[in-house]
User: Fold these one by one.
Assistant:
Number 1:
Amino acid sequence: MRQSETTQGRDEDQLVAAAQRGDVDAYNQLVLLYQQMAYNVAYRVLGNQDAAMDATQDAFLRGFKGLSRFRGGSFRAWILRITTNCSYDQLRYKQRRPSTPIDDLVEEDEHSTLLQSEEEEPEDHLQRQELGAVLQKGMQSLPEDQRITLILSDVEGLNYEEIAQATMVSLGTVKSRLSRARAKMRDYIQAQRELDGDQGRL
Amino acid sequence: MVKVKEKRNHRFAQNNLSAYLDNELSEKDTLRVRAHLDGCHVCRQDLAALRATAQALSELPRMPLPRSFAIPRQAVVEQRQVRRLDRGFAALRTASVAVTITLVMLLSGDQLLARDIIPTPMLRTAREYDVVAMEEPDMFALELDSPQPEAAQKPADEKSAEAESLTAATEVEVEALALPESAPPDTDVGEELTPEEIAARAAAPPGLGDSEAPRELHPLDEPAPVPDDEAVLVTALPEEDITPEEIAAAARTQEQSAPAEEAIPERVAAPEPTDQVDPVRAALRQAMAVLTGVAMVVFGGLVWLGKKRRL
């Protein structure tokens, strides 16, 4: 279930080294490798596609500018850390101008983007949409540090070591944050289910 | 005893279910949790719920990428441009600080002059001071880079013309900088003195009476006349028709300027302050005018670059 360590290995190191010498093409190969994950993390933190796009763009630009400060380790964790910071910047920016309440956007986005696959029953599709919205809202209710830990671990499948690098905390902190985040999510989902009287999959 | 141990195991399991789920526990801890799970229904349920939660999160759909986030080559070029802009901006910022400090210094210098030697010695006598100042170079006058020494060398017949230009410059400056302090101060002391007193004072040799007060001058002050400048004063401009009153007034201000520097501006009088400006102040004004121009250019550049940088 959990993704193995970066498979690119040596290739990635070479790309990073080339990018650090100012090779844009090499850096862009790294972007191609991680943009999906970075964008997804930003979206899960922010719950809004436009904001996630801005955060991701900002993150990769910042990453290129700050590449000289990358001192080895997991590049993925490093770029995800920048993405996380950019996402929080966006979040604070949005909170300062609450013209678009994030809660409203969540459901809208979920409905519009969760495309129904052909073999899926319409009812299942609806249920999946609702579950996605509930999960997103539940994550939004978590404290920031727990939220990002949960996203990196359960949504993106990073291991504890990488999460520790990406969030700049110790393994023990990752462990306890994740434990608390999961427990809260579990309670949130259960409460939501009772509220709706719904016989969902959970 | 067994119950206490079970409670402790339960708490341990509850705290570590999440890590157990991820196989992130040590072998010993894993065995401990597993042993407890076998006998604890609650913990088994909680573990199942946690697993379902994590599973549901991992099944959240990936958001389709709206576009590629690859960095355009142009951005790299732009970044270099931005770096150059940044450097220009930093230089301009330093320049603006320097200009501002200098302007403030000049302004306060002008203000000190306006307050301390308000009887701004009449132009002609001021010129004579300058001759003395030339012989005993005044550090500050040199530092100011003022046209003062040149002015002192100019022949006497040019003086009236220059006085006009200086006055004009002063008026422009006064308008531009809106300095209320540069307006003429009260002239009560001058009115209090009878013509006899003035004549008497002028006749009195320097070094007596008031003039025994310390002669060191404020840095911004007019260069101090050495005792024997009385001769220069009288002899330097023989062809000009100087009335005794003028000489007397000049001598008096010369005597008073030394005590006046002890911040008693009321004691000092300005005979005709508006149309007579002493060269130090005139130089200050000129420097300020030039610096104001420079400052405008610098600030303008700063605003322009700042806008360009933000784009």
Number 2:
Amino acid sequence: MIKVSGIAASAGIAIAKAFILEHPDYSVEKRQINDVITEIAKFDTALGKSKAELEAIKEHTLQELGEKKAEIFASHLLILNDPELINPVKIKIESELVNAEFALNETASQFIEMFENMKSAYLQERAADMRDVTKRVLNHLLGIESTNPSDISEEVIVLAEDLTPSDTAQLNRNYVKGFATNIGGRTSHSAIMARSLEIPAVVGTKNILIQAKHGDLIIVDGLNGHVVVNPSDEVVAEYRSKQKQYDVQRAEWRKLRDQPTITMDGVHVELAANIGTPNDITGVLENGGEGVGLYRTEFLYMGRDKLPSEDIQYNAYKTVLEKMEGKPVVVRTLDIGGDKELPYLSLPKEMNPFLGFRAIRLCLDRKDIFRTQLRALLRASIYGNLRIMFPMIATLGEFREAKAILLEEKDKLITEGVTVSDSIQLGIMVEIPSTAVMADQFAKEVDFFSIGTNDLIQYTMAADRMNENVSYLYQPYNPAILRLIKMVIDAAHREGRWVGMCGEMAGDETAIPLLIGLGLDEFSMSATSILPARSQITKLSRAKMQQVAAQALELQTAEEVVELVQGGLIYLWL
Amino acid sequence: MITMQQNFKITDEDGIHARPATALVNTASKFIGAESFAEANGKKVTLKSILGVLSLGLAQGDIISIIVEGEGAAEALQALTDVMVNEGLGEVHD
């Protein structure tokens, strides 16, 4: 039994067998062969196995995700039956006396190159299908255990170096009970995704792939950040009982589902959820969310090969607004670029993507993309309580330009005879220090602020949150951050505006008392954090937390702040 | 031997993509006695190959000829025409 520690990224306990998700080495050597018949038979066997796999995946996808998603596998099957691929491979084996994997690789490469050089972006993307199919056959020729996340068909714990957004999008939550990765932190994509899927996860273990192998029994303890490999029966029993306790606690929290979030001294704050797709609304309502504080619209743009049309977007926004039944929904306009790429936009690679051409900067340049999104939002606005928020605003000029475009589109729609809501609040993300510092000026023009702490912290501390060597600088409790937050809240309240927070900090139990004290109005977090947060806030008094926050602002280090909240000074305010 | 031909103008904004190409190839493959081809931009490919069809690199506005030879050519051409039109790929172009 081995115990590995990492960062608790998503709460809960999961016990299942390991599924190693890795991107193996597909490099192929050229070998001379003597026995053509055996080599061709080897190729045919690999083809047969690959097709059988694809049939199974196609069937599985059809059952689980529907016809549309299954179509791609029908195309893959057709490629493996394609004489234009199969015959040249066999001819090559025969005439050049080379090994099957080499012949396949050479032939497939020609098709991959052909697709890559096509004019249409759509057909360029087909190179990925060709690679995928080729890898599937190579798996059998090279004896590699295939590890495609959509192949998973039994209960597993996924172990990986890291999970990309596309890997996580393919994970089937019926089978994937939890995951653990070598790299990443609480705010990495994989961690955020785990919380929205409500599956336990531990990230940043550094060596889980060394410690565990495919099929090992794994316990993921997403409460304490531990992963146990091949536990003894006693340990399994111990964790099963912890799992039960956690379930009991969750049941307690569930009782708070339909309760408002009110402090002991009667102050109401709003607990909202961060979502990525309309499907997440179910989780928001199950967890008693009082609204959506951040709808990350970039997921609409990801996993497809061209920009989503106005109608596709309109339908998504309308669905979210309708399902929330009049509760506020803050939609963040497209925050793409930087580390979140869209292949079909073919944006140039940047040295410094977090400081680069992204979010509102990109939207103000590619106004066609921006206008389409705004039109879709405005059209959907009559179906609920829509609030629009611009990301990465650094200057008032950017906000004014974005707002002007919004108003232009609104006027156009009204001229076209489309009904648009008149009560759409317009706000900005505060995640760039310049904007936090100028909050008093912004507050005169915006309806609300939402503090994006993940970026605000990394920009304030000048520390890439994905870089483990500087992760110690990711300090939400640093008095510098608390002071910036205070500036923003005070500035907003002076102008009668409300302030939300949609970064990870909003759901953090150490930060919550301070944020209550600083006067935060809305807390937006992963849906699963809402009930624990509500349980905590109903036991706090705003007046007392104001004193605690005032003390924290005068402290010198993040550690002192943590000690103040968690440690010995607690008696001062309970 | 009978040879039949029908021209189409591609109307889909993606050109010919994987799903309709799959339908075309599956349909062409059903008619064992007939050989079906697609010709566009000076290139002719068998309709029994999805890679061949995709390799035409068809874009919106391109003209594609579907040519069918052999037994059941008329039926095969009709079935392929149905796929072209029903999948929203293209319209008959004379």
